[in-house]
Amino acid sequence: MSVPFYNFQKLHDEKFQKDIMNRFEEIVSQNAFVEGKYNFSFEERFSKMQNAKNTLLLANGTDALEIALLAYGVGHGDKVGVAAISFYATAECVYNVGATPVFIDVDPKSGLICVESTKRMVEKHNLKAIIPVHIYGQPAPIEELEKVCEKHDVKIIEDGAQSQGGFYQNGKPIGSSKHITTFSFYPTKNLGAFGDAGAVTLADSELTEKIKSIRNHGRSPNGHALIGRNSRCDHMQAAVLDLKLDSIEEQNKMRKQVASWYYEALEGVAIRIPPKEMLELSSWHLFPIGLNSRDQKYAAQDYLRSKEIGCTLFYEKALPEEAPIINVEGEREHAIHFAQTTLCIPMNPFISKDEVVKVAQEIKNFLAQ
Ligand SMILES: *Cc1c(COP(=O)(O)O)cnc(C)c1O
Fold it and tell me: Is the CB of 62 under 6 A from ligand 1?
């Protein structure tokens, strides 16, 4: 029995393929290739799901981060606090608007941004904004971060690339806060397009108009009003996302079921697993486990793969260990250890209880060697 990490075959089953081909035929027959009816339908329905005032589709999740920074007026000379466990784009976007990142360390149990480290970095570096990441789908502690940031007028941009359908600690959907939350719909995310797409959710109507303009070359009803860019979302991608919205909440529930089986099957095993309170909150994009050392992590990966269990390193290195950004200021101690020891085991909506039991058994077999 092999246990795949992703399962696109089941995700894009025969019925889905038929439905999406119908939509593509419709788009082709109408020559409606950008910002068509499925863009508007998706934006409205995603807002409802995330309990957000507005959703704006964009070309990808990295653009969403960059455009959020631009919308808040972050640019040359500014410093932006970045959670040190994330995908590279979370730091890259800061450079691409001309600002400089400062790393903020993470909680050693969850990999989520550490509030104490945030406080120190905000006070020391006069940050203009911070980017907490809802990493693996778990919610970053936004209310606590707000207390730190509001005192110093620091903007918060939530990187929700992995958290479609996840919830904050207060039970409200991620993306419903007063901040700009960014999403990626890269194909492997919980809600994935057939290529690149992204979005922001936000409440502020002025910022909403500004981002609408930025994504379409600075256009306004009376000509071009600012220097923007092209970050429109293709109609075909919007059609895929809008169709997948029909099942995303059900699929996230299936991910949560898989996570609860993992908690059961891994009870008492000598590895780090996500904090139990995440069960009800996370979108369960990934299920990270922590080994004792980097060597043990690589050995576990080899062992599990030899048993046909898909596993992947998210992330092979903490951001401050990536060569182009290695000398960046900030804190990183826990993040480096976290990245060195973390391995992600199969997580998708189509994993059975038997498969979870097999993965857990093989982890135990590995540790007993
Ligand atoms: C995927 C991802 C991004 C980037 O999104 P793209 O759509 O690939 O540009 C940013 N941040 C995090 C945490 C991600 O997982």
Answer: yes
CA atoms of 255 and 252, how far apart (whole Å): 5
Looking at the CA of residue 162, tell me the nearest atom of ligand 1: 15
DSSP 3-state of 158? strand
Does the beta carbon of 131 lie inside 6 Å of ligand 1?
no
CA gap 295, 134 in Å, rounded: 27
The span from the CA of 192 to the CA of 107, in Å, is: 28
Distance 182 CA to ligand 1 centre (A): 9
- Bond from prior residue into 315 cis (ω within 30 degrees of 0): yes
How many alpha carbons lie under 13 Å from residue 274 in its C-beta half-sphere?
29
**Residue 257, class by beta-carbon neighbours within 10 Å (0-12 exposed, 13-18 middle, 19+ buried)?**
middle
**Structure confidence by residue, pLDDT tens digits, 227-263:** 999 999 999 999 999 999 999 999 999 999 999 999 9
Amino acid identity for residue 354 in this structure: D
Per-residue pLDDT reduced to its tens digit, 268-280: 999 999 999 999 9
The full 3-state SS of 11-74, as one line of letters, equals HCCHHHHHHHHHHHHHHHHHCCCECCHHHHHHHHHHHHHHCCCEEEEECCHHHHHHHHHHHCCC
How many angstroms separate the alpha carbon of residue 62 from the centre of ligand 1? 6
| Beta carbon of 162 within 6 Å of any ligand 1 atom | yes
Report the b/e string of 325-364 with b at 16+ CB within 10 A: beebebbbebbbbbbbbbbbbbbbbbbeeebbebbbebbe
Give me the residues paired with residue 234 across strands.
Answer: 34
Distance CA 353, CA 297 (A): 24
Tell me the C-alpha distance between 234 and 238, whole Å.
6
In this prediction the pTM is: 0.97
SS3 263: helix
- 187 burial (CB, 10 Å; 0-12 / 13-18 / 19+) is middle
Calpha distance 82→325 (Å, rounded): 12
d(CA 141, CA 155): 15
